[in-house]
Amino acid sequence: MKITEEQVRYVAALSNLQLSVEEVAHLRADLDGILEHIDRLNEIDTSGVEPMAQVLYEAEDTATLRADTPVEPLGNAAAMANAPQSGAGYFKVPKVIER
């Protein structure tokens, strides 16, 4: 395996996740499979392939893009109208990081 249990636990800690032993083993196998697939993709010769910036299907030039028209901004009062809690013009949310 290319990825170690220690690396899985490190990434989980960065994501603030607490994983069981079974979850670590499962994620280790999944991540290993992803890395093996990427290795296979890296073996493909793409020297004659031009880079692509935008993939569009056969249609009008702007078929997948909306018109760029200016609109008035939402405004603070309208943004706060459906907030469960707000104060001083800001959304109030519970603290999620406790390290």
Task: Give a short summary of the structure.
By secondary structure, this protein is mainly alpha-helical.
CATH architecture of the domain at 5-42: Orthogonal Bundle
**Mean pLDDT score, rounded?**
86
Structural class: mainly alpha
Distance between the termini: 31 Å
The biggest sheet amounts to: 2 strands, antiparallel
Which consecutive residue ranges, at least 5 long each, have pLDDT under 50?
A: none
Name the overall outline: flat
- The number of helical segments is 3
**Strands of the biggest beta sheet: in what spatial order?**
1-2
H/E series: HHHEE
Might you state the CATH topology name of the domain at 5-42? Answer: Histone, subunit A
Q: What's the total count of β strands?
A: 2
Q: Work out the strand percent.
A: under 5%
Which value, in Å, is the CA radius of gyration?
A: 23 Å
In the CATH scheme, the class of the domain at 5-42 would be Mainly Alpha
Provide a descriptive summary of the structure in words.
This protein is mostly helical and 99 residues long. The chain has a domain at 5-42: Histone, subunit A, CATH 1.10.20. Helix content is 37%, strand content 4%. The chain is built from three helices and two strands. The chain has helices spanning 5-14, 21-42, 76-80, and strands spanning 86-87, 90-91. The chain has a two-stranded antiparallel sheet with strand order 1-2. The longest helix has 22 residues, at 21-42. The chain is flat. The mean pLDDT is 86.
